[in-house]
Amino acid sequence: MKYYFVLISLPIILSNGYVITLKNLTHIHCVNDNPDSAVYVLPIERKTNSLKDVDLKTWENEWIRKNATNLPLGPLTDKRWEDLPFPDATRLKYTSALDSSFSFSVFSSTSWTARLLMSNDFSPMDYKGVGDVNKWSHYSIVLSKNSTYIYKNSNIEYWEREFKARYLTLESSEKILWRPHFYDFLWSNSTSEKPSVLEIGQKETTCLLLYTSLCPECFLEVRVNNGDSFRIIQNELKKNSVQFWQTHKIYIDPAKRVRVSVNKKAFNQNVDGYWAMDIKLCEGHTEFSNFDTITNTICYELNNNFKSSFNLDAIRHKPGILVIGDNIKNNIYCWDVLGKKFPKCEKHKICAESNQCYCSWGFEGENCTDRCASGRRGMSCQERILPYGTQISTGWKASVPASVIILIFLIHTVKLL
């Protein structure tokens, strides 16, 4: 009897839930292990808490405080985006002088128009923008030499040569949600005479976020009193003189006083360079509250070009863990977000995808406040406990992968031929 083996290539479908949603009757917590992206919820709401600024007043001798409109910067999509101004939905009518750039975010597919004018020009540059459905789109209008560029999500959408705009008007015929990118940061055009030092007392914070934008010949030398030292160079170089931000995460011991020193250096000492930097304290989550209804409200990631280590099956078998890091110290647990009273996210729904929500371990009911009935356990009480410790799953996928079952079936079929 001959045996034929068939090699089958089966696609592996991964979860698209990069942000984990925890919610009770009044609050929503967005848990995200991507330090380079902000989060938001649908329906759109303002967040409750904000990332804390780090006091950098002692750096004034080495750095200058700049505004985002003073330099040709691209759109902001990291955690700082959550703290930007958030006007109410209204018909857009905004006019301003242009210095170097102007960035803003627009939600949903409402159309809008940008009209750009030179100081003595009667032929305006008009651009009609349309965002994406149920998503934030990010735009930057950037002046470079004698040209004007319009970027959408860091890609050039439109440009006009020999046209250096001085005035901008944004308009829409319908109500629109938008966020102008007004924020400050530290900037310098010279190497360090001495290191800039930051000291942080004992806190619950476990990391710092360093946001940097550097010239190609520039770098930062960073030293932490825990023994870590590293060099920051610009991975994403400027395009058409537009500068982009990149994020660096420094893990710290919350039980110790932290001391971080930063040195501005250049590979070529004769370079006319620039160093831009901002620093934030980490938070493991973003909180939204005061909802009229939170039934269908889910967290989303602003910059989803990131693959999380999140795995729903791992959460199911490791109650209390939300995000599994490469190092066990980087894991995020329920108590990191909700406090020590909620080691397993008690009385909260856990949503791993936009259409998958389960009550936390040991709870069920519409509001996830009812404890499991006798003989039941697990998330949403979907696991039935049988005698002698045996258990079967009534709501979860079988533990044997579908691909293995199909392969066994096909081999068995070939054998019968």
Automatic annotation (TrEMBL):
Domain of life: Eukaryota
Protein name: EGF-like domain-containing protein
Lineage of the species this protein comes from: Eukaryota, Metazoa, Ecdysozoa, Arthropoda, Hexapoda
Gene name, Swiss-Prot/TrEMBL: AUGUSTUS-3.0.2_31806
